[in-house]
Write a structure and sequence with these properties.
The complex is a heterodimer of chains A (201) and B (223).
Chain A (H helix, E strand, L loop, with lengths): L1 E10 L2 E11 L4 E5 L6 H8 L7 E6 L2 E2 L4 H7 E4 L11 H11 L6 H10 L15 H15 L3 E4 L8 H16 L3 E6 L9 E4 L1
Parallel strand pairs in A: 3-8, 3-9, 6-7, 7-8
Antiparallel strand pairs in A: 1-2, 1-4, 4-5
Helix pairs in contact in A: 3-5
Chain B lengths: L1 H19 L1 H22 L3 H22 L6 H5 L2 H7 L4 H30 L7 H26 L7 H10 L1 H12 L4 H33 L1
Helix pairs in contact in B: 2-3, 2-6, 3-6, 3-7, 3-9, 6-7, 6-10, 7-8, 7-9, 7-10, 9-10
The chains are: A alpha/beta (201), B mainly alpha (223).
Chain lengths: 201, 223
């Protein structure tokens, strides 16, 4: 589905990484490993077509990504290193906005189950700005589930999560892959998740 | 149909966000009225003088008050990653800038539009000039929103000096002020001046998605 071929990126004449190859098929999990500043986020941005690669190319469903961009965007969702939920609004408001904006086919009962699993069901009327960092991170995972897209691109999804939440994430990853979904995520630590491909930067 | 729904729900999101921060809108309006009072107190009780320069004061304060809200134009959505999420949901950066410009017009400029009659009473502006003020401000404020979109998107790459964006808006709004105030003071040339103002609107409206879209892309690239 997604193929990255000999990708190199230079910024301000500084080589960030070179000759990266990866291939992501349905049901696969790819991990990008490396220290801080090794270029994990840069690679994810290049895959999302936000950065122009210096060399190499990216293909989506056999076509150059640039020529198939909106089809790719229809199948991809992203979690960055920031919290995308709106801090001034309550969890309930955020869910309502996502549900409508993403035209999600996830129904209320499924959202309720996800909220219970993520242990966020008691905070529905709480403003996101008052939640802890770990809880807002869990809310991001709820957005992933609600967007219901095939390819998940996640930047450091496991940072600042406790062991229980990491366990929950592993379960979510497995569920997603069992439904023909695929995941690329970056991590500077060993997450203990079964991955099909490991890229060291 | 899905695309149209997404646009509707984009504005639902903007509405929710603006209503949760309604104090920001109210602060802008309060700033606008307090500035009018300061002008009145500094000029003195001479009704004729106030009436003569009232329209100029009104337009200057509308410009200053609307630049107050420019900081929030893209900043929050940029910092919390929502710009990228909206982009990944099928909206190009240029299209996002058009949507945000209309949102700024609706939630920031329209409250000013509604408060113009009260400001006219305070500044002793004749009732028959109200129509011309409404007409010029409706077009002029959209121009200011377009300029605000361009300067705010440029400012995303410049985290140190926010005032630079306001300065850019002020410089480019000089023609808007000239023709808008001209419409009210030279009612006989209403048609020609409103056409010029409309022409300026079309120019900035065409440049806005291109310039703002590019700045949004570059700032996400370099974030």
């Amino acid at each position: 589905m997604l193929i990255v071929k000999d990708l190199s990126i230079e910024r301000l004449d500084k080589k960030i990484f070179e000759n990266i190859n990866l291939s992501l098929s349905p049901g696969n999990i790819t991990i990008l490993k490396g220290k801080n500043g090794s270029g994990k986020t840069t690679l994810l941005k290049a895959i999302l077509n936000l950065l122009e690669p210096s060399f190499g190319s990216i293909y989506w469903k056999g076509k150059l990504l640039k020529k198939n961009l909106y089809d790719f965007y229809n199948h991809v969702t992203y979690i960055g290193d920031t919290t995308s939920s709106l801090r001034k609004l309550t969890i309930k408001d955020n869910i309502n906005i996502w549900k409508k904006f993403f035209i999600s086919n996830i129904n209320d009962a499924q959202i309720e189950i996800a909220l219970k699993t993520l242990k966020l069901d008691n905070y529905l009327n709480k403003k996101v700005g008052t939640l802890s960092f770990g809880e807002t991170k869990k809310l991001e995972f709820l957005r992933l589930i609600m967007e219901n897209k095939k390819v998940w691109i996640l930047d450091e999804p496991l940072s600042n999560l406790d062991e229980d939440s990491i366990g929950l994430m592993k379960q979510t990853f497995e569920d997603h892959c069992s439904k023909e979904g695929s995941i690329i995520f970056s991590s500077h630590q060993n997450p203990g998740i079964y991955v099909t491909e490991e890229i060291n930067l | 149909m899905n695309f149209l729904n997404k646009i509707i729900f984009f504005y639902y999101r903007e509405y929710k966000l603006n209503m949760s921060g309604i104090q920001d809108i109210l602060t802008n309006i309060i700033f606008f009225f307090i500035s009018i009072f300061i002008f009145i107190f500094s000029i003195g009780p001479d009704k004729e003088t106030i009436s003569l320069i009232g329209v100029g004061i009104l337009w200057t304060l509308l410009l200053l008050s609307s630049t107050l809200s420019l900081r929030k134009f893209y900043q929050d959505d940029f910092e919390n990653g929502n710009l990228l999420i909206i982009h990944l949901n099928g909206f190009s950066f240029g299209f996002i800038s058009i949507l945000k410009t209309f949102s700024h017009f609706l939630f920031v400029q329209v409250p000013f539009l509604l408060s113009i009659p009260i400001a006219c009473i305070l500044l002793n502006i004749a009732n028959d000039k109200l129509f011309y003020l409404f007409a010029s401000f409706s077009i002029g404020s959209l121009i200011l929103s377009c300029l605000g979109s361009i300067s705010s998107s440029m400012n995303l790459m410049n985290q140190r000096n926010f005032l630079l964006g306001s300065v850019i808006v002020m410089i480019f709004s000089v023609p808007v002020i000239i023709f808008s105030v001209g419409i009210i003071n030279m009612e006989e040339s209403f048609n020609s001046l409103i056409n010029i103002l409309f022409g300026i609107l079309l120019i900035v409206f065409a440049i806005n998605p291109w310039a703002s879209g590019l700045c949004l892309k570059l700032s996400l690239e370099n974030s």
